[in-house]
Amino acid sequence: MADANPPETPPPPQDPGAQPGALVDPFRAYNFKLLIDGVNEGHFTQCTGLHAKVEVINYREAGGGSVVRKLAGPLRLGEVTLRYGLTQSPELWSWFQASVSGQPQRKNVSILMVGMDGVTEVMRWNLLEAWPAEWLGAPLDALGQMVAIESLVITFESFNRG
Length: 162
Known about the structure:
Blueprint: E1 32-36, E2 39-48, E3 52-59, E4 69-77, E5 80-87, H1 91-100, E6 107-114, E7 121-137, E8 147-155, E9 158-161
Antiparallel strand pairs: 1-2, 1-6, 2-5, 3-4, 5-8, 6-7, 7-8, 7-9
């Protein structure tokens, strides 16, 4: 005969971040950090435009017949767009305001891609002689405690992988 009271199964374990009263790091879901002078000034969920192209110059030597040589021309760099960001620092806005006034402050900055834990550095790009060229603010939320950034466009003169 079957037992009338089957043993109770314990509830599934809960994610520690979902516990009432537990502190959840709001930056954890943001996988790109912007460092200015080695200081973390913002967190973003998307980074696009990291682009470089060497222009091709077609050159036909005199007397060379129909052979067209290809020479390396000028380097064209894209502009990096960081989207959907958060910051607690006024530094980004001050940096952009210098550009608005016609006196861009060129700085060496780093964009870090971090792992799913929000801490471990996976990859780094160093932008040299960089300055902000465009700022688009996100809709304001009276309940939020941080400045949200819809997009920040940064122009630069050279870059490397760190």
